[in-house]
Amino acid sequence: MIYDILVIGNGGAGLSAAIELKKKGFNVAIISKTNATSSQTVQAQGGINGVLNNSINDSVSNHIKDTYISSHNLGDMEAIKMVCNNANDTIKWLDNLGVAFNRDKEDNLAQRKMAGSSHPRTCYCSDYTGLKIIHTLYDTALQLGIIFLDEHILLNLIKEDNQIKGITALRLLDSKVIQFLAYKVIIATGGYAGVYFNHNTNSSGTTSDGIVAAYKSGAILKNMEFIQFHPTALKDKYVLISEAARAEGGKLVLKDGTRFTDELLPRDIVAREIFQQIQKGNDVFLDLRELGYSKIKTLIPQEYKLCFDFKGIKIDKELIPIIPAAHYSMGGIKIDYNGKTNIKNLYAIGECSVTGVHGANRLGGNSLLEIITYGINIAKDITIPKEKIEVKQYTQYIKDTKYIETLFTTTIGDSYFADREDLGKLVYDKVGLYRDEKNLLDAQHTIKLYANKQYKLNNKSKIYNIELKELLEFNNMIITVDLIIQSALYRQESRGSHTRLDFPNENDKLAYGTLLYKNNNKLTVGYENEY
Amino acid sequence: MNIKICDDNYTIDEKIDNLLDILHYIKQHHNQSLTYRYSCKSGICGSCAVRVNGVEKLACLTNIKEQSEILPLKNLPIIKDLVVNNTNIPSNLTKSAAYLEQLSSENNITQEDIEKIDINSNCILCNSCYSSCPVLEINQDFIGPFALARVYRYTTDKKETTYSTKLNSIQTNGVWDCTLCGACDLVCPANIPIKDSIIALQNLSVQNGYENPAFSSNSFDMGFQSDFGFDPNSF
To answer: Does one domain contain both B95 and B198?
Structure first.
């Protein structure tokens, strides 16, 4: 079986691409690590940005401007124009499939104002925008007959004759390595905020699997040092407390009630202010008590429920302990305006890719816009090559089968559990909101130890082995953290989400993306203008 | 804390209440082969539903008490420990044709229209309702609560012009097989009124010319034996 197109990842990007490709008549399969509706996209609460055709006060040029400002001069103007110009069509496309977008009093799509946007331009479905988008796309995809291969973990890309011919993946159900051949492979595996293990707001699966596989095959990566931190995650649980809580009047305070910052400053600044307090040994809280019960229940009911469900805290009466957490990764696989990577027949879309829309910092509401727009647009240009792919056991498949078999037979080595926890803390402390050369080199040193260490499986069962799944993810986390550190060391300035204490200012001469790629099997880092 | 997961008893020395945290803890410290699904840890991906003392719950949203018993969902084949085969989700959604069949050219959707489909479109496909359903214990071909709730969501959508395929697809092993016991309503983490959705679908079916097959085939059990007692032909 050779698929025309194999999409890896079932989030918003993967589903949108698959739907449009299937409509064009291609034989499409979506292969993914999770069940079909468990992707990270379901957690997107805020909404999707777009200036609608009937907008009176706002304009597409405002949207372009806001996005570029947020990118700290690292945004690609052509990519930004493309998504902003297409935003109305993208949102209409979703609405027409049945996504239940809220309406305003004039029966137009309702829009709210998010931080960093000059006008209200975020369309939403109550607090569940991502969830409703994913489920509507899934319903559509099922009826179109798209093949879903759930719970398969991407191992590697099959690359021969300088082109991609498919992938190898591990079927979780029975730990079998399978090769899936395809004329075109689209990576849509999501971001890498999950490397901040236990210190991020993401689903457990955002471990950079697709980015690592692409990198190993020679794909160029870009801007890996840029990771967005959200200021207010629930302490210990790392569950997101929405920005709406501060917008509605929530205050950030220390234990004694002292305020220490302006709560309505941009996300990255507030996150750094909170982090500084925590570094000093202070606990930081979000105080919503002044709002009172009825206002809380009307304006931010989900926050009330989350705090009560997870911490037993009644937010109208008690302080909410909070901590900044890794939230979104701006870096990933470098692609062109059509989603193409530098490798033949390999594409990437969604958070794992770098389109140039976000630059050094993402504007809230722009990620859903980017992933769906690129998902739809990728179908416009793809054609299937006439030359048939040879059906045989590829070297990559044989290699990966042996590797998995070794994991089941090896009895020497350590469990990854403790090291994974340490890794999360290490990157949060040393490669997090604040960086400097010493801390980055320290972290790099520890990462090398992990990379050279042998890990073993305690559980040798081949049936749905989550220890095996997590070990494979941990391997990808180690490689990713190394790439983040290399980029963060290289960028000797502070820009957007990347703050170097030893280089506190933005340097106009460094307004270029950071590229990482393998050159004769050696990692090369450089700015885009030097490539 | 002492708890039982499937057939194994565990004593947890750490003070942890959250079930998903407990499962992670046991896997790391007691039993590396413990098998369960999880993903978002925020109650929205639907992958971690299990039964706690017989009641369907999302592990990530549940604090448990001393002596709790954790079991996998019912009505689904068990793969290992707490992981069940959930291929019933795509197959039942496909069968029920729960999607927007034909977009209406009308463009005056109001917030009121959106609110009609709001709750039903919050389904996270966690299979809790499927596990709680007594009909599925005896009829595995029953399409189940979530698929019906989703069909209702699309039949109520003002953007939809026709729901003939959907309505037709739920007549056999579907809308009439539900006993309206409401067990699904009690366990739905998204608080979807599933029973009411099914009643509404039954009404819609009748309005569109379908009828309850139990009535039409005269097989409706009136509670009387045929060889004695009440004789309907005696009138």
So the answer is: yes
